[in-house]
Fold this sequence. Notes:
Blueprint: H1 2-26, H2 31-46, E1 50-56, E2 62-69, H3 73-76, E3 81-82, H4 86-94, E4 98-100, H5 112-117, E5 122-129, E6 134-142, H6 150-194, H7 201-215, H8 220-232, H9 242-245, H10 253-259, H11 262-272, H12 280-285, H13 306-320, H14 332-341, H15 349-358
Antiparallel strand pairs: 1-2, 1-6, 2-3, 4-5, 5-6
Helix pairs in contact: 1-2, 1-6, 2-6, 6-8, 7-8, 7-13, 7-15, 8-13, 13-14
Amino acid sequence: MKKANKQTEEELGQLTLFCKIASTIASTLEIEKVLGLITRSVCQLINTQACTLRLINEEGNELTLVSSHGLSLEYQKKGPVMIGEGIAGCVLKTGKPEAVLDVLKDPRYKTKNFAKKASLRSLLCVPLVTKERTIGVISTYTTRRHSFSEKEQKILSLFASEAAIAIENARLMNKIKEAYLNTLRSLGAIVDAFDWHTERHSENVRNYSIAIGREMGLEPDDLKAIEYAAYIHDIGKVGIDLNIIRKPDKLNEEEWRQIIKHPLLGANIAERMEVLDNLVPLVLHHHERFDGKGYPDGLKSEGIPIGARILAVADSYEAMTADRPYRKALSKESAVLEIKKNSGIQFDPKVVGAFLKTVKNFSKRGSEGQEITDPQKP
């Protein structure tokens, strides 16, 4: 009776763990996170010491290693497995799980030297199957000889089905994000074309901003927001009189009052597009100053969103190193000195510090952009 109760408790615990892991993976849409979760979770679920996840490449002729857990870097560098070759290739071809008591004695296993170095002995390999197709295989290893039970094979096969769905969902999300990013790139290109003084301005501001953000150790989600905002930070210019935008000379007072409306106009445009609403603060405040003398709201210091503070430096550097109708581009060295001079005044000193560490990697170009010290203002 006690033995039966203990078995029931173990099964309940494993079922609970399965549900928890499956739920976590299903709720994650970042492809790299999904792949890493899968390999770590397999070892936890089946009580194994190593796991690999291989997916079919785009050409459909080989299995590429996309994630592993419990294996050395040397093992991870193994080349792809051709469809139909090795144990993984056979599992993919047959669509059925395969349990191997000792990989060192199985003639199908081609990398025995690697397995020996990694102390891998027993293997359970199952296919990743979605409703439409098989997309790859999961292989999990023990470091001691272990006869995988039918129950373990069923559990891993069931988990692989959940994992396959999660991978496909993450891939779909990646495609959606890529389409979204391409749309933003197009919007940025339209704005740059609208103002013929600013060819490739948005793309360059994006590159500089990402470099600064990475140097500051920003989280991936924050970097993405900055990247997206960089493409559309000047989108409000489409609401400004074209004659003002394209004026070859300095602007008068009234024309300047029109130009400085573009962050607010841009924020209004982004706000109306639901998928862009998280970018509104960055678009709205990228012309604020650290000393509070910027526009449109006169925010200062830490009150300015970090993404907007980064865009301000990137936007200004891009502007200074670009030709304008009324002046030639500054040299890289002169632009850097101007940024340093305005640290703590126009720019966040922390952002400037990160900029100075990354600017040496910025390429020298002749594209045009917004002026750093607003020289058009009378």
